[in-house]
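Hi L., both proteins are below.
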Amino acid sequence: MPEKSQLSGEMAASLDRLRKLSDARQAEVQRQQHTTGPPDAVQRRGEAMDVRDDVLVRRAETADRRDQTQAQRETMLDDRQTALDQREQLLDRRESEG
């Protein structure tokens, strides 16, 4: 199983890529607003880009929640494994003493 720090790094990189893509699209919307052309078409394109940007933000938020839940599960499993290891050591000591 990958280390938590590796997973966190991968998650951060993924979110960073999504944010960069969102920023690039937002910049494109702003550039398109300054182009010559029918204002309605530019507005529709801008609105479409806003919708896509909102979708990307929601995906990033969903990924954040999923990653947080996964990290909590991994921590819980690590704690359980630690408790099992401690019980095993205790039983081994009792067997060797008795």
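That was the first. Here is the second:
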Amino acid sequence: MEEVYSESGNMTIVSGKVFFYDEEEDYWIDKDFDEDMPHKEIVSFGEEYFRLIAEYPQILEYLKLSDRLKIKLEDDYLIID
């Protein structure tokens, strides 16, 4: 995992996606995630979580970063907690 530090805080690139760490919210947030868009909340290790992994296998790379993510995958905006 390539890590980069910016003036605004911690930032990292995972499989071509840029994530910023929000200390207040305690989430790694995909730079493409839009808070204003409708999103799904996914409970870690719940049924929907495993369906998500089956649908988007690449998410396993992002989950190595943290189990608390705000991410955009294709047209889906997801909050994984």
